[in-house]
Amino acid sequence: MSEFVRFIALRYFTQSHRKRTLSLISLISVLGLSLGVATLIIVLSVMDGLIAKTEEIVLKSATHANVYRLVGNFDTYTEVAKQVESIPGVLGAAPVVFREVLLMSEKGLATAFLNGIEPEGYKKIADLSELVVKGDYNCMKLKEKCGYVAQNLSKISDLDEFLDEKPQFIPAVLGSDLAEKLKVSPGSVISLVTSGSRSTAGEDAMPVSGNLVVAGIFESGMYDYDSRYLYAGLEETQQLLDIGRNVSFVSTKVDEPGKIEDFRIMMSERVGGFPFAVQDWRDLHKTTFKFFHLQKLIMFIILVFIAVVASFGIITTLIMLVIDKTREVSILRSVGAKKRVIRGIFMLDGFIIGLLGTVLGSIFAVAVCFLLKNIEFQISKEIYFFSTLPVQMSVETFAAVIFSTLLISVAATLYPSIKASGITPVEGLRHE
Fold it and tell me: What does the domain layout of the chain look like in residue ranges?
């Protein structure tokens, strides 16, 4: 863009016969665009925060990949774990028994996912022991040292007698929201019922029941985990479900979760392929991440219309500027200024308004994001997965919003600038 175009554009922008009116309209345009930009950045930063927080919790409290046996019993998990651990970059592997169960306490009822784990081995692949906020994680292994006493066992004994089961009291660690649903604390007793393999020939399979003693309560910060997961010892879980030495899968942890696709391929090759299969953390939580990314895209598409609406202020400002500068444009045309020069002048004026709005909106958005981050804005955990609003500002988000807004601003200048370039020398000087 030539120096001449810049000089004339800035002069038109700062000097006008209707300066007050144009200044007010320009101010409204800038403020409208600023609010649109700020809203876009704030909402997208919150969505980025949700995605990042979810990923952080998943990688911290859950495992990175699971090795399944698709056919037959999975009782060779010790050998499989050793094979997987021999891969460079794999930090650990541990067997897990996974089963959906129904839990009952004196004051509550809930469905949950029971995970039978080796307490010491599981520390290599997940930070569950560090997430325990009440009780003691080690009680799952050293239950004789915990000293928890069963309370109010009459109802549990009646249930065990009805189901023809011998009372068992297995130490378990529950999620904080699950414990709240059941109204239990460390030392409380919970009854468990699930489907099992126990059956007599010619008879229907009977449900499996048992009793859990709450050894500890963990809190990951993510509602899905805290409200549905509980952990107990591997051997106790196998005995309870009467599944022998079988497990559901072998869980693993790697040093670079971002390269989990490469690790998945190596794990599959190391265990020999079929009948084994490997599922990584992205597949395990595909629905959650897809939901967040789709919601982010929808939010962007909806909120970008705020910038589109604000761009009408730019169109109005430029149309009034064209009307005000009709005489000056005619003079420029009469001395040989080409149409593209006239278009460039008014497009630059519109771009300046868009740039000012974008910069001010970005600054305001940064201030609001820092504020939301520092005050730990409370939200409904049951709906949004977290108790506080996570915010993460990223260069990609800022770049996408700034680029989109400036593109909209430039598009808004096209019609007024084309109209201005169509002014003839006679049109502006007719009454002079």
Answer: 3-57+289-426, 63-284
